[in-house]
Write a structure and sequence with these properties.
single chain; 92 residues; mainly alpha; Annexin V, domain 1; 63% helix; BH2638-like_sf; UPF0223
């Protein structure tokens, strides 16, 4: 990994930073291996508690996609369309 996760070190607590990084990591795993749908949606729910603004979510996820090539939006969309307990595997 030769990119940085977009985080807000000024306003977020250490726990919030860890939770946001966990969400990005889950998206990354969905592309590189596979990830449990329920775990991904749980990490997204926590991400949305930290980043409730849709515009801020788009900004952060856009930065993440620009850096990594991995889309938070498409990954979460696929997870929401999948059945509970499914594994999510994204194609680039």
């Amino acid at each position: 990994m030769s990119y940085h996760y977009p985080i807000d070190e000024i306003y977020w607590t250490k726990e919030e930073i860890i939770d946001v990084v966990n969400f990005y990591s889950m998206v990354e795993q969905a592309y590189e291996k596979q990830v449990n749908r329920d775990d991904l949606l749980l990490s997204y729910t926590r991400f949305k508690q930290i980043v409730p603004s849709k515009s801020e979510e788009k900004k952060l996820c856009g930065q993440f996609e620009k850096e990594s090539g991995y889309s938070c939006y498409r990954t979460v969309k696929k997870a929401k369309e999948s059945a509970a307990g499914d594994k999510i595997k994204m194609e680039q």
